Amino acid sequence: KAKMQQERRVKRAENVEGDFWVDSTCIDCDTCRWMAPATFTRANGMSAVTAQPAGHVERVRAMQALLSCPTYSIHTDSRTAQELSEAQVGLPALVPGVPGVFHCGWHDVKSYAATSYLIVRPPAQGGNILVDCPRYNPVLARNIAALGGVSHIFLTHKDDVGDHDKWARHFNALRTMHQSEVRAGTAGVEVQLRGEGPWALDGTPLPAPATASGSSSSSSSRGSSS
């Protein structure tokens, strides 16, 4: 732990000078690079700030990447309360071109930085589906509640479960996962799928073109996520 704390203070030499920077604990997960590509790129096997954010919008995006970094490897030497507030309020973020599907942010190192999505559906269609789980955070929980909360949690793979237990308790949500992916930490998942599908969740199809044995994908009439 002491070594990790010491490493966190080491600014990577690949960072350009300025407020935002990445330390040497980066695990090269790519999260920041696709969330704020104008600021972060890959340099010598890890992420680095290769261009400081230009303007308010880019600073907020960089701040969202900071919040979503699963290893807390991104830092800023200065920030305003407005920037932090806008970054927090902006997650979950609507996925461009996919109505009703939101990127949750707040990636979890326990899920190897896997991306979690919220599929927003009317209550009459069974309510919202959380596809895989981000790191639990009360600010994110409030924002998800404002979008209608979570009725179902669909876990696609054993490595992408994140803080599923905390999210399930918070929203009293029903969890679904393929039985072959269940491990000790997910033994309490309420619905365990078997076979090769396809399945349906309140009429929403859950086909299973697997990326790994037992893993599943979720689709919605308002968008899709895998």
From TrEMBL:
Query: Which parts of the sequence are annotated with region: Disordered?
Result: 197-226
Q: Which Gene3D superfamilies match?
A: 3.30.70.20, Ribonuclease Z/Hydroxyacylglutathione hydrolase-like
Which residues lie in Low complexity bias regions?
213-226
Q: InterPro entries of this UniProt entry?
A: RibonucZ/Hydroxyglut_hydro
| Parts of the chain that traverse the membrane | none
> What name goes with this protein?
Metallo-beta-lactamase domain-containing protein
